[in-house]
Structure formats: structure tokens, C-alpha cells
């Protein structure tokens, strides 16, 4: 298949026109007329995943996060991001990014997160057109369970990270109706309150918004690593391409952990604080 054929499938699933205005999605480098026999899907286009693509013989890297989100005047090889572009081109590999257009799609990033956790999705958290699309998802567990157990469920469903999973709220409070948002989601805390859910799963929650949310009676919060929250999307995107091309294109999901944190430590001396 030609790269242009793969791009057509991706842009049908994740229309570029639905991306946020500030976003940078689409083809970063590569010739649409070149042949593609293998695709590597990842969250982050980093030196690790580009190396993996080269090692595994992929002609296309499909990444969730943009490589060049901010405007640049050039991509010299002695610049970290420029070096990735040069390495991709020298090895005959293209880079395509689907970011906020994949977040809001149906299915999208938050559908993949909800499915991994075991939720039955009932609709978007922030609806958009066409119906069913939008940012975040609301779903339900088959049976309610305490927050303590629900946090463990989330941890078991996602790849391990140094951060792990942390929760705010009554550990024994029952959780059944849940909102999720892959990636940084604290901008949706007000929407979560209005949604009438028992818990909200997202990434990159900050101290003050989280504290104020809980103090004001908002639903429980479950905070996970940004990369881990979006990694389930990789298999979703891979399945879209496999369904479109069958065995004509080999679609792989990256095995590289691109979460930036590498060391975690827990204090053993609390200094008398309670």
C-alpha cells in the first residue's frame, strides 16, 4: 500500500478538521507515494520509538503526540527534534501524528481508556458533532466497587509507571459511574461535577484544582501517568489499520515506555504529620 492510502484511512477515522486550532496534526515527513508494508503505532515520537521503528523495519510511525507542536524555522540535524526528522527520512520512514482529532473521535483515545478499565461507554463527557464524538467519555462498571478497589483496577489495566495510580476521595466510597479523559484532564473538572459520576480517571492532575474539587464535594479522582492513559489508544488505532488493510500492512504497537519519569521514592519518615 502507498503511504497516501494509509493516510486516507487515518483521516477518515481521525479527521484533521476536528483537531483543536492550536494543534499540529497530519504528515510531518514522508512521501505519500512511497510504499508502506509496516506501521509502528506509539504515543510519543521520541528517539526511543524512532529507533524502534528503524529496528523493526517500519515505513511509517503513527504517533499520538505531535513532534512539532510549536512553530519552527528549520529542522537541523543537530537539534533534538530535527535529528528525529533526519533519522526518519534517512531510513525511509514517515511520521504521521493524530492528536486532538484522535481524542474526540468515535472511537477515540478516551474510548480506549474506558475499555481498558472495563467500562461500558454511554457517551462523551464534552459532546461534539457528530453525535457520540467529543472529549472524554462517561461509562459504567458492571458492579459498583470501593474506590480502593477501583484504583487497583485502573492500575492493573494500564502499563506500569513510576508514578503508578493515586486516588483522592473516600477509599470505601462506591464507584460505578465513571468519567475518563486520556491525557491531561483537569480542565474538565467542572464538567465532571455536572455529569453526576462517582469517579473521574485522567492524567496530570494538579494539587490545587484536585484539592478544591474534593473539598467542594466533587466525585473521586483517579490520577494516572499521561503516557499510560493514552497508551491503550495505540492498539485501537492499530486495529483500525488492520481492519482496513488486512494482511497487506503489518501494524505493530510500540513496546517502548516513553513515560519520562524513571525513579520513584516513598518517604518512610512522615515527621509526625497526620
Keywords:
274 residues, alpha/beta, 6-stranded mixed β-sheet, 5-stranded mixed β-sheet, 11 strands, 33% helix, globular
Low-confidence region ranges: none
Largest sheet report? 6 strands, mixed
Q: What is the helix tally?
A: 10
Mean pLDDT across all amino acids: 96
User: Helicity, in percent?
Assistant: 25-40%
First and last CA, distance:
62 Å
Order of helices and strands: HEEHEHEHHEEHEEHEHEHHE
Q: Looking at the chains present, what oligomeric state does this protein adopt?
A: single chain
> Which of globular, elongated, flat, extended, rod-shaped describes the shape?
globular
The strand line-up of the biggest sheet is: 5-6-8-9-10-7
Round the Cα radius of gyration to an integer and report it. 20 Å
How large is the share of residues in beta strands? 15-25%
Using DSSP, what is the number of strands? 11
Q: Structural class of the helices, strands and pairings?
A: alpha/beta
Keywords: Metal-binding
Protein name: GTP cyclohydrolase 1 type 2 homolog
Family: Belongs to the GTP cyclohydrolase I type 2/NIF3 family.
Subunit structure: Homohexamer.
Amino acid at each position: 500500500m502507498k503511504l497516501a492510502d494509509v493516510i486516507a484511512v487515518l483521516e477518515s477515522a481521525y479527521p484533521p478538521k476536528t483537531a483543536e486550532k492550536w494543534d499540529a496534526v497530519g504528515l510531518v515527513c514522508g512521501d505519500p507515494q512511497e510504499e508502506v508494508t509496516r506501521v509502528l503505532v506509539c504515543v510519543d515520537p521520541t528517539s526511543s520509538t524512532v529507533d524502534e521503528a528503524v529496528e523493526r523495519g517500519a515505513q511509517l510511525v503513527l504517533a499520538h503526540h505531535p513532534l512539532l507542536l510549536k512553530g519552527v524555522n528549520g529542522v537541523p540535524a543537530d537539534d533534538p527534534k530535527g535529528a528525529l526528522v533526519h533519522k526518519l527520512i534517512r531510513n525511509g520512514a514517515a511520521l504521521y501524528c493524530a492528536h486532538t482529532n484522535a481524542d474526540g473521535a468515535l472511537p477515540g483515545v478516551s474510548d480506549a481508556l474506558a475499555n481498558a478499565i472495563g467500562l461500558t461507554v454511554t457517551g462523551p463527557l464534552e459532546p461534539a458533532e457528530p453525535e457520540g464524538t467529543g472529549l472524554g467519555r462517561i461509562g459504567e462498571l458492571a458492579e459498583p466497587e470501593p474506590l480502593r478497589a477501583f484504583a487497583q483496577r485502573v492500575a492493573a489495566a494500564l502499563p506500569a509507571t513510576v508514578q503508578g495510580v493515586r486516588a483522592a476521595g473516600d477509599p470505601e466510597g462506591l464507584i460505578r459511574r465513571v468519567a475518563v479523559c486520556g491525557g491531561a484532564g483537569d480542565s474538565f473538572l467542572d464538567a465532571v461535577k455536572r455529569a453526576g459520576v462517582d469517579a473521574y480517571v485522567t492524567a496530570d492532575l494538579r494539587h490545587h484544582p484536585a484539592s478544591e474539587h474534593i473539598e467542594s464535594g466533587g466525585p473521586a479522582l483517579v490520577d494516572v501517568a499521561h503516557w499510560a492513559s493514552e497508551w491503550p489508544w495505540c492498539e485501537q488505532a492499530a486495529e483500525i489499520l488492520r481492519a482496513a488493510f488486512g494482511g497487506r500492512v503489518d501494524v505493530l504497537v510500540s513496546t517502548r515506555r516513553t513515560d519520562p519519569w524513571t525513579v520513584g521514592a516513598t518517604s518512610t519518615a512522615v515527621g509526625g504529620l497526620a
